[in-house]
Amino acid sequence: MPALVAAVISLVATLTACGSGPGQVNSAVIIDGRSVSVDQVQEMVEDVVREQPAAQSLARERKLDLVAREAVTQLVIHQLIGKVAKEENISADPEDVAAFLAQNPLDDELPTDGSVPPEALVQQLVFRARDANEYATDQVLLAQLASKYLGRTSITYNLATLPDGAAARDLAAKIVAAPDQAGQLMTEAGGATAEPRLEQESGPTVDAVYLTAPVGSVFVLPAGQGDQGSGGFQVVQLLDRQVSGQLDPGFDPSSIQPQQLPSLGVFALREAAMDADMDLSPRYGVWNDAMVKVVPKLEADASGSVLLPRDLSKP
């Protein structure tokens, strides 16, 4: 086993050394002038391989890039949480953090038989490589953010479904260039499923991905289940979003498990991520505003995207 670990560490060093980085030397990502170093990401990957048997199958399969990408995602999210928490006037009470840790959320040994999908596995692996108090604080804050919007949000939107991603992305670009013509543009895209559907949803029926989406934003999201994009792509123009001070009468809080709240709360960070000056090293992939995480460059289009009219004026 020590030989495997040594070989893996050598591989990690090679992976993190390749490719050009952002403006600051040895930076994995720079957010509003604050740098996360490549060394910090590498150290987390090495800790995972040394301490977690479940990671060793990923090492043998040369899939440690998944761990590195998840590490960067979590470190970016950690920085965004600090800003958003202040704006939303929320904080993590030390007693709540202690209570969260007392539940021993990371004590379960992760399976090594491949029964856990890689994406879920690497998230849990990186959780275990982080400082426990920092991880717990982030989870408590994310749960609070989710609770502020779940069952309180209503949205109005135009929606069209197109058969392929290229057509959907082209339509989205046209809509952000001429938002008032969205209905006509959707109709001109062709096909019955491309006809615009003006819809309104509220409370528990609102997909978490739109919980804090900026009004005017245009999403391109895979519409199918299973393989990304297998059922076409949805183009969604968000026309209005309202957040009530009261829970929707039809919302049953017990329908959401407490452990689900942090993953839903991540979407509340989207607007902060879109506004941030973020420079991500391409060795890890690209930042995806729709999913609020780093994705492989080759999967960027299939993972979805979100645009605002102002995006057209960006250099």
Automatic annotation (TrEMBL):
Sorted UniProt keywords: Signal
Signal peptide: 1-17
UniProt xrefs under InterPro entries: Trigger_fact/SurA_dom_sf
Highest rank taxon of the organism: Bacteria
Protein name: SurA-like protein
Species for this entry: Actinophytocola xinjiangensis
Organismal lineage: Bacteria, Bacillati, Actinomycetota, Actinomycetes, Pseudonocardiales
